[in-house]
Description:
392 residues; alpha/beta; 5-stranded mixed β-sheet; 14 helices
Amino acid sequence: MTTKKKGLNTICTHAGELKDTAFKGAVSPLYMSTSYAFEDVEIKRYPRYFNTPNQVALSKKIAALEHAEEAMIFGSGMAAISTAILAFLKAGDHIILQRMLYGGTYHLITEQFEKFGIDYSFIDGSDPAAFEQAITPATRVVYIETPSNPLLTITDIKAFAEIARKHNIVSMIDNTFASPVNQNPIDFGIDVVIHSATKYMGGHSDILAGAVASSSENMERIFQLAKNLGGSLSDYTVWLLERSIKTMGLRVKAQNENAQKLAEFLNAHPDIDQVYYPGLSTHPDHAIARSQMHGFGGMMSFELKNDINASHFQKSLKLIKSSMSLAGVESTVLSPTQTSHALLSEEERQKQGIRDGLIRFSVGIEETDDLIADLEQAIQTAKKQQETVTSH
C-alpha cells in the first residue's frame, strides 16, 4: 500500500512540527535551552551541533519541501552558502560558477578563495555546455542560481545536473528566488539546494536565516564543517521561521499572480525599456522556466527609459517601499547598482548587464490595482522632475 504524498500547504503546515505533549497546544513548543543533559539521553543536544528540538523539527520541514533526505538551517543565507561550498573544496580544487550571482556569493569567491588556494571560474550566460567546457581535472563543484539575481536569467537545471553527474562533480543551486513553492531542483538531479531563508521562507522581513538541503551523505559532510564554523541559528528565530513557512505556499502563490500581472503592465508601458520576468513569453528563457518551475515567482527587474531618473522614481513611490532585501509580503524595490551589486566594478556590472536604470522589484501580496497605480504615479512624477531639471 502506497501513502499518498501530502500537498504543498499541508507540508508547509505540518511537516516536522513538534507536538506539545504537555498542554496540547496547536503550535510547536519552543525550547529555548542552550544546555542539555548528556547522561542517559539518546542524543547529546548542543545548539552549535544543529540538533536542538526546534532545529531538528524545522530541518525536517525544509527537507520535505525540497524533496531531500535531510536539511540544515543556518544563521544567514551566506552562512549556508559558504558552508555548503567549502564542505566540498580544499586547496588545489576548482569551482565553476555562473557569473550572474547574488553579490554576497560573488564577493565570497573573489575576496576569500585565493587565500584558501581554491581556483574558480565564472561562466557568462547560462549555457550548460559552457560549464562543461570549463571543467578541469581539479573541478569539484559547479554552482548556479536560477532565477538569477537581478536579471532573472534561467538555467536549464536538468541539463546542468546531468553534466555535473557525468563528470562526478557536485552540483549546487541557490534556489532563493524561486523558493520550494516554485521549484524543486533535486527532482531534476541537483545535489545540493541552498536558500537564503530570510527571503520567501521567512517572508515577513523580520528573520535572518539560511538553509541547505541534500542527501544524507552530503549533509553529513556539510555538518562536519558547519559545527566548526558555528553558523547555527537561535531557537527563537527557528521557531519564528517555522511559523512563517506555514503560510509560504499561500504567500508565494499570491506573489506569483501579482508579479505576472505587474510584469505584463510594465512590459506594455511606454516609459519602460525592458522587463526581466520569466513568466513573460518575451523572456528568452521562458520555455525553460515553464519546464522546471511550478510558478514564475515574485521577483522581476525592469529598466526605466533613459530620461527617467531611477532614484527619483523610487523616491516617488508611496505604497511600494525602497528596501535592501526582498520577498516580504510587502512590495519593495531597489537599485542593484547602489545595493546588492554596488561592490562590483562598473566594468563588471556592464558585463553582467546591470545598468544604472535597472530596478529590482520584489512583488508582495497587496492588491494588484493598488501596485499598478503606485508604479504609474511614480513614473509620471519622476518624468516631471526630470523635465524640470532639463528645462533649467
